[in-house]
Amino acid sequence: MNCTLHFLHRAVREANSHIDFHRHPMFEIVYYRSGTGTTAFEHNEYRYEPGIFTVLRANTDHNEIRHTDTEVVYFGFYCDQTPVELNTGMHRDFAFTIRGLIEQMDAEMNAKKSHYELKINALLQAVIIEVLRLQSPLAPSASGEERHIWNARHYMDQYFSEKVNLTQLSALSGYSYDHFRHLFKDEVGVTPMQYLRQLRIDKAITMMRGRDSSLTDVALECGFTSLSQFSATFRRITGKKPSAYRV
Fold first, then answer.
1. What string of DSSP letters covers 60-85?
2. Which pLDDT value is given to residue 107?
3. What's the CA gap between 135 and 147, in Å, rounded?
4. Count of domains in the chain?
5. Where's the HTH araC/xylS-type domain (predicted)?
6. Which of 96, 131, 142, 191 fits as disulfide partner to 146, beta carbons 3.0 to 4.6 Å?
7. Is the pLDDT higher at 72 or at 187?
8. Residue 131 structural domain
9. Are residues 16 and 107 in the same domain?
């Protein structure tokens, strides 16, 4: 697979602006560095936020509606052999690996040093590899459902401290929430919400045993909206008060 960059742009779009449905005759990756809003493609609408990026195969109709000022880097490219697994979809750049590669591409484009085009296309290949790894993190023998559930678990493991929208997470996996919940329980043994709650409680216990933070700080850092919610959930899962785990 040999891919060649066709364009790369960085832009800041104003809040409450939009771009209507359009398409490109090539692959496009749109990376959101800041801002919030929505983008729609393949009959689904998705929310974007910093660290989210979309992969769009050639001739995919898509739009963008910005709720806040949005900084975006977007680039189009052709491949001499279509990478079958590079599918249209939205993803989260968990470790910001892809962002780092895109920043290098942008820097090379601006500096235009000797052989910069070769360097940019080499970085593009690295971006595509990282995207493929995000889309297929398991063994080749793993089913599509296993891959989607793995991605969902990985997302919750990384972002348990934030507000996790399970309905949106199921949509990103390509399922309705009810079907996603069923698949998740079959694969993991508990529902997505039960998994997230247990994960947050486990993290809270670790924090309480290793730090002097107040219980309110622990609750908020572990994704609970209040101390009362944290305490009630903690007692329901462990049968004890949070203070019982203080060293």
1. --EEEEESS-EEEEEEEEEESS--TT
2. 96
3. 8
4. 2
5. 150-247
6. 142
7. 72
8. 3-136
9. yes
